[in-house]
Amino acid sequence: MARNELILTDVTKRFGGLTAVDALSFKVEEGQIYGIIGPNGAGKTTVFNCITGIYKSEEGLVNWRGEEIRGMTPYQIVDRGIVRTFQTIRLFGQMSVAENIMSGRHIKSTQSWWHGIIPTPGKIKDELENWKKVEEQLDFFKLSEFAATPVGSLPYGIQRRVEIARAMAVEPTLLILDEPAAGLNDKETLELLETIFKIRDKGVTVLLIEHDMDMVMEVTDYLTVINFGKKIAEGTPEDIQKNPAVIEAYLGSEDDDDE
Amino acid sequence: MKELQKFAYPIFFVVMAILPHLLDDRWQAVAITFLIFAVVALSQDIILGKSGMFNMGQALFFGMGAYTTAILNNEYGWSIIATIPLAIIIPALFGILLAGPIVHLRGDYLLVVTIGFNIVFVQVLQNNLGGITGGPNGIFGLDSLRFLNFDLTSQISVYYFAFVVLLLTLWVMHNLAGSKPGRALHYLREDQLAAESIGINTRVYKIFAFGLGAGIAGLAGTVYATQYSAVSPEAFEFIQSVLFFSIVLVGGSSVPGVLIGVFVMFVLPEIFREFATWRYFIFGFAMIAAMILRPRGIWPATFGKIPKFLIKENNHGA
Asked: What ipTM was estimated for this complex?
């Protein structure tokens, strides 16, 4: 079996006349925390949408573990171990925290469609096993006290945690986080950092977009900087901080920092 | 609410079990209608309430089940009981076939397409397709209920037939609520993109909801055909679908809500027959008031249960 590597080769995504992602290539290696940064509108989220099957890129290759996943549907890609979160939190608002996390167990559950009509001992056992997994995630993300609370009524910072917990319930190989620190205060951002390191220690590769430069420099092993859909630099955080092209692209957009 | 439900269910079942012995003929008929329409409304709830798909054609599947029973009994001499499997399977298959090409449509478009299906269905019945639907008059003179060697002609037998069908439906919905497919329906209703991104093949589960809802409605159709020993096209008009649709919206996507909705729509008008000319006027206003004051329904949906061991002490809002 091929290594757990994600390799993008010359991925291009156009919307009408606009080229949102322009011949972008990068490689995420197993066990890395990989960052993608860039100014507003640089096409970062579009890249994620191309990887996770929400968009299909017009050109290029998206290779995961030696398999071409470009053009697959989002659920097929989840089935191959790639799970994402969203920049604007997308939870099932009226449902409880536990049920939200349970959605991550969907593809791991052995139940078939007809188990929705007729229960069997196997189905009952499967239900219990998956709820136990939910309990693990609730403990890991310190969400136990909110298990039965409708997620829509919780503060923003906790909702972020629920979204990552839901993604982790899938037991992914590659976790994709779209601006996980957006809208968090300093204390919550620090907790998030710890969580990301703990997730990496579990053997999960993490790919993230982030706007918070301090956080990116602290958390990532390797970075790709994009602007106007093109890669302008890549390297370790130390390299990137010294790179003149990055400084120019980034400092130029400091004023409109909030996306 | 939860405590109330714990007591209310056993009481409801006991009352429903002894009810026909307390009623005269006319009210027995009303009670049977309540049971049948409750089953259809619950089947609509699977599609509209649980999965959030705007299906305005539930009378189609209801009628398809009724006609399947009527045709098999009248033309081919099957006993009523023997027609049940096909009266479930045929509407379910049609539900799956019809849903296949349309479930990706957004709410309002789906609504218009399902209305179209319902109208076409009634037209087919009225025009006596294949010479077996009996045209505008429908099919009448069906056999009475017969099981093994018991002749179950009495209205009370039909009542218990309908009651068993309701219990079966409630059992299926209970199983659905605590299962992977049932939760998948909730997820896709709440946020389809998020559901896809967590690994749910939303298309398959939408079609599943249509198939299941159609099958249950078809079974209710068999009971309906048994009650009247007849079927005719006007009972399955699009306006009936509108009623089932509004019952789920007004009642809220929960079993008590749907039962209250059916009671208000079909039983109250019988009780207040003297005010017959006023009743739709009053119900129209009641629907408007309910939607403004309780936009999620009189008895809103509570989502799937979570196991007790997850609910820790000092839990918020359990």
From this structure: 0.88
